[in-house]
Amino acid sequence: MKQEDVSQFLYNVYNKLYEYWGPQHWWPAETKFEMVIGAILAQNISWNSVEKAICNLKRANILSIEGIFQTSDEMLSELIKPAGYYNQKAKRLKEFCNFLKREFNSDLEKLFALDISSLRQVLLSQKGIGFETADSIILYGAEKPIFVVDSYTKRLFYRLGLIESEKISYNDLQAIVMTNLTPQTQLYNEFHALIVKHCKEICKSKKPICNKCCLKLICNYYNEE
Ligand code: SF4
Q1: N or C, fewer C-beta in 10 Å, the chain?
Q2: 3-class SS of residue 53
Q3: Confidence band, pLDDT 50/70/90 cuts, at residue 86
Q4: Together in a domain, 99 and 200
Q5: Which positions fall inside the HhH-GPD domain (predicted)?
Q6: What is the domain range of residue 65?
Q7: 159 lines ligand 1 (CB under 6 A)
């Protein structure tokens, strides 16, 4: 596809998804700190499990930098158990809070004031924070325009025919999208959320429900079947 075609195609996909599903209101969190904690806990686990862990932290009244920092490792692991890999994730949460205290005087807004590239670099330098988590924090926490890629994005764009393989690297796919869509936080926010929704409900891994899909007329997978 030529660049203008890719751009037009991506906007077309976005518009069709938005028309079908409506606004997704991401990220589901009451505060930015809760959003960041949710992003760290969300690695390799369903969102329902993350919600249970967040709920436990709220109930124990420790959903704050100081609260997490001062809670024992054992207690923290116990509270976030529903989110899986709990010993490892408890360690990561503590390390992240320690980093915020040390480097940003416990002020998340100071971290978020960095420009996108520095913020991404700083987040990626934290143990256990990979591209998807870092970019989710930048997009949904710092509210800066960076496109979040995940396995749903790779699956959908591969089936639609935009990319040749689901094995495309995170950064390569992100670059394709960001070169072709205007860098707008709200657009990237909604697009990622819509892709997740669509892949969970319709473009499922094993049996996509193509006859119900709003993208079928522009989908390679459907049209080649
Ligand atoms: S038509 Fe089928 S394969 Fe294509 S995007 Fe829709 S559900 Fe996925």
Answers
A1: C
A2: helix
A3: very high
A4: no
A5: 41-201
A6: 32-141
A7: yes
